[in-house]
Amino acid sequence: MTPPTPAAPDATTPAGPPHESDDLQDSLNRLGQLATGLLSLEDSLTRVAEYAVRAIPGAEGAGLTLLEQNRSDTIVATADFVSEIDTIQYGLGQGPCISAAAEARTVMSGSLGGDKRWPKFGSKVARLGVHSVVSLPLVTEEGVVGAMNVYAHGKNAFTENAGRIGELFAVPAAIAVQNAQVLAQTKRLATQLQAALSARGVVDRALGIMMSRTGGTEAEAMDRMRALSQQRHQKLVQIAGTIVDEAVRRARALHASSRT
Amino acid sequence: MDDSTALSEAIADLLASVDSTGARPAIDLRAAVATLARNVKRAAPSYQGLAITVVIDAQRVTVSAMEPLWAQSEITTSLHLTLGGFPLLDPSTEITFFARTPGAFVDLGADLTFALGTAAGPRLDQDLPTPVWNDVTGIAEMSTINVAIGILIGNDHTPGTARRELHRMAAAAAITVVQAAAQVAQNPTDPALRYRFDG
């Protein structure tokens, strides 16, 4: 019996033990099915970071930072020690995540305490007992949208293969992050617009109530309401809310008493 | 007046009516529009603008925001999302994005089908051509109706009977509810507006 011919190596399959490929594939599958529309932006990004920890061999925790107009914006972490480290990084303005985002390339270190690239950051983090990092920029066609940090306590915890796996994960992760941002911001815009219109509705009803009492125009009623707002140091919508609540309460009481 | 100025003024007008203290409003619609536009552009670089519709008390209000130097003739593709699945938003809330390059939203649309967690996926290229301006439409009608409801509440109507009365007036005169509301506002102390408790 002729032994089977081994399959030719697949350029897209990362080298390494089979379980590493399984972890990556599992994480990629979960990423593709992440219903970010049903989660808050922070929860969505935290899930992405959790999948990264599963995918990257040696990882013990991960953090994800979104960049908004070149400033670090939303920041999430899968573990408290990651939050602590990223707080140090952004407080100092130096560190592997900042470098990865600025240079749009993967940055790794196996001994943060002695790494001359970030002398202040490295020494502080080493004292916390964390020595290894893989930092990956999250890049779309339009540029860097954020960065992901993956940490481990031990020295030299990440191999080059771990870095390559991280880069494979970072590509769909960037898309997932981008989509989560679009949905979160769409939700925010819709919610804010709804809130503004609801408040406007209250103001308009209050104007009508005032007009019914004075016979004046809408403009005259608005002038009176603004004057009240300034006298009482209250927002216009609060004054309007009080006027509407009192009038509705009165009307409902009249309706109730007419039925008895 | 250029289009971006028209939108800014329309939004400023909406916000000014709800906050007269001069303090920075907690609601910053212009920033929200700008941030969303920036991120959609990352996914679709030929992005040209958006139109978002919110429903309040059965009244539809649409905010349209287009990129500077946009041109109606150059819009070739659209992506429409229904946002009713989000908590606290009316089921009819919707948004449409527009772009110049055909197919610009294919990937984003496919990704958002999963992200929204719904089998009813986003709608591609079915919202063209739509006259889209930098503007807030529907708000004048919404205001007219709410002022009239306020007048009726001031005349002993509850919000529910006020709304029903407006619809009754509109049907009786064969006019729209907005037109009936405008008529109410012309004479807010008319005794005929007072609620009749004798049925």
Overview of this protein structure:
The complex is a heterodimer of chains A (260) and B (199). By secondary structure, chain A is α+β, with helices and mostly antiparallel strands. Helix content of chain A is 59%, strand content 14%. Chain A has helices at residues 18-32, 41-55, 80-92, 96-103, 119-127, 160-214, 218-232, 236-259, and strands at 61-68, 71-77, 107-109, 132-140, 143-152. In chain A, helix 1 packs antiparallel against helix 2 (41-55), helix 1 packs parallel to helix 6 and helix 2 (41-55) runs antiparallel to helix 6. Chain B is an alpha+beta fold. Chain B is built from six helices and six strands, in the order ααββββαββααα. The radius of gyration of chain B is 20 Å and the shape is elongated. The termini of chain B are far apart. Chain B is 40% helix and 18% strand. The longest helix of chain B has 16 residues, at 139-154. At the A-B interface, helix 6, helix 7 and helix 8 of A face helix 2, strand 1, helix 3 and helix 4 of B.
